[in-house]
Amino acid sequence: SHATDLAALIAGKGTAPGTGGLAQGSQIYAASVFERSRDGDVARAENIISALEWLIANNVQIANLSLAGPRNDVLASIIDLPVMRGITILASVGNDGSRQVAFPASDPNVIGITAVDANKRRYAKANIGEGVDFAAPGVDVAVPKGDGATYRTGTSFATAYATAIFARKLAEGGNPASVDTESKSAEDLGQPGFDDNYGWGLLKISGCKK
Fold first, then answer.
1. Which residues share a beta bridge with 135?
2. Is pLDDT at 58 greater than 90 in this prediction?
């Protein structure tokens, strides 16, 4: 249900109050990168590379990588290719409570997203470090389930919210959002300016005052 919940947070039309996606009307491209193994489901680098190539071929403008793991040099060496071709890549910083952001969010070509709760406090298990760029809601967020809702927590779900915000801004302005542009409108949290807990702060939707 992980990927389904992410898609719902981006563009779903939930029937329960508060479960509609932030970027309804967006077109979702789903690329499966996980394989079953004796150690559980694993996202192999070659699968992620193939998925990014497929997204490029389909002119997708924003890629959500709500997955986290150790650095992979092969994937890191080609990740700048889709970025150069106009894809904005967002990834979750990880939920290990580590003082090091997980890959691929730690890559300088990727926008790393952490999770905050309704009081704008960082999720306690979210990784921290230089690779955190922005924060988004990711603690007890409501996602559609049947005619009601269920609640999810983690940096993956914050990344889905961030993806929806970037998609809305792309639709409104015609240009992809970026770290440079969003750092000017994000709500500063934690220490003044950039910090390892919240990055540049909480991403905001146009007209949102909270």
1. 114, 202
2. yes
